[in-house]
Structure formats: structure tokens, C-alpha cells
Design goal:
58 residues; mainly alpha
């Protein structure tokens, strides 16, 4: 379930960031580019959450 929410948030945040950056550059917004960016964001968030940011067990 948490992976689904990670992907949903990555799509929403990625689309917003992509929209803002393309608007600032005077380009047109392309949803497929936003989805590619969202896949990258979700992958990084999942990898960081599962592997890189482990809690130290004492």
C-alpha cells in the first residue's frame, strides 16, 4: 500500500514541478515527460526509503 501512495505522490509532485519549470522556460507542458519524471521520483523515493535510510537497531 505504501508503494502505491509513493507513486501517487510522485506523479502529483512530478507533474507540478514539471509544469512550473516548463512554464518558466516558455515551453509547452507534456504529460508524458511528467510521467517519466514521476517514475524517476518514485524509484528514488522507494530506494531511499527501503535501503539507504534504514533505522539503526540497537
Amino acid at each position: 500500500m505504501r508503494y502505491i501512495m509513493t507513486i501517487v505522490w510522485a506523479v502529483l509532485i512530478g507533474a507540478a514541478v514539471n509544469y512550473v519549470l516548463t512554464s518558466m522556460g516558455g515551453e509547452t507542458f507534456v504529460m508524458s515527460d511528467a510521467l517519466i519524471f514521476a517514475v524517476l521520483l518514485a524509484g528514488m523515493a522507494i530506494l531511499l526509503g527501503d535501503f539507504a535510510l534504514k533505522d539503526k537497531s540497537e
